[in-house]
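Help!! Second protein's tokens look totally different from the first
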Amino acid sequence: MTRLIAITGGSGAGKTTIAQALARRLGAGAAVIAEDDYYRCASSFPDFDPARHNFDAPEAKEHELLREHLALAKSGAAFDKPVYDLVTHRRRPEVERIVHAETLIVEGILLLAPELRPLFDLRVYVEADEAVRLARRMIRDTESRGRSPRSVMSQFFTTVRPMHDAYVAPQRAFADLVLFCPHDAGPEHAERNAQRILEALGG
């Protein structure tokens, strides 16, 4: 069987960095996948408009497929993970084959939703101040996703913050471990958090 670890929390909280640090510590027996790859393809929405689409709502993700894949992973079976293009908002034609791993680390904002929560052996919530999360989103989206600062700000206060308050933050109550990521967190902080996760695993 494969051990499943959820690393969840707000957008820009530092989930990806911690997940990667944990995978490095666990070595070749660990793999990381992102909940973002389970975004529903833009083609599945009539009149899709990325400027108005709510990417942070639960229905934006295909959790039923993610749940199926996590169940396969837990049993030790392989699965074909979709690959989502965050610039075009569409799934790519190719898939990524995820073969058996001793530990599968999943990072994303809504992993402790009721339909997914029972599958995880360890549930980690990463907390960061809103100003920190917004600043990190601003850098990421303008530098790697071709967004304007105005569009990033508009999206954050129109959909990201309300969805965080309604769906993301309440997941903290279901976490086995809560980590805090300060504004000045660097690689060494991610390593310390990865060590805390290992300790929670008993290793």
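Here's the second one for comparison:
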Amino acid sequence: MKVIVGYVRILRPINIIISVITVLICADILNELQNTPLLIYTIMTVVLFIGGANTFNDVHDINTDKINKPYRPIVCGDISMRSAKIYFIILILAGVGFCLFLPVQAVLIALLIAIPVMILYSIKFKSKPLLGNLLISFLLGLTFLFCGFVFGNVFPMIIPASLAFFLTLVRELTKDIEDYVGDNKSGLRTMPIVFGLNRSIKLVIFLALVTGLLSLIPYFINYYSWYYLIPLTLGVELPLALVVVSFMFSPTILTAKKSSVLLKIATIMGIISIHVGATYGC
């Protein structure tokens, strides 16, 4: 049972659930929920690719996870390194299998962009200052565009992709601050290590403010209705404001840990805000 739980945990279940909800919301916005076969293929593709990416990431992060996240399945011995590598291959191959049932444009995005970027991120770019953060943010935003190509309508996905990109970028930089000690001991060159904690925190504050302002634009240009504004204000603007204020008064690693949780909530609420705004119109 412990091994089975380990195989589930390495997928990051919360991230998997969020990805499923994201695909369902995209399909609903595009009025494609009734397209059951295509919806199932898309969900399975996204879930398997994200699960594979998380597994691959844990394989390559074992040294830093021993310090930053000792509860991870490989580190605590629930899954062996060899088993994790085999698991990654199975997940990706299964994802490719489901992906081949999707439209050609979506297949090309998945095989030529998403998978290579996911692998290169873990192997080479994760420890590159800011570049790694930008790549993972790009991948999260790409999920929305991928769904747009699957269902044949990319334009409505541009705003959700942009919001996901910026929220993820703020959270990824915050997580780098949170993981500063372990990353530094492992010889990684993340933003806080190369440019310092203070500069990194200032960048998080700046990006949080920019993200908060940009996320209001769809409402002010009447693209989304006030139905979008209410959950956005409570679920995105308020957490972003708390992150900014917290870092201003306490620029510490502990604040980064607390802020990371707030930003995950903000990401989920951002998706919900877009769904509500798009569903109820202007």
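Reply: Different proteins will give different token patterns, so don't panic. The chain has two domains: 1-127, 154-282.
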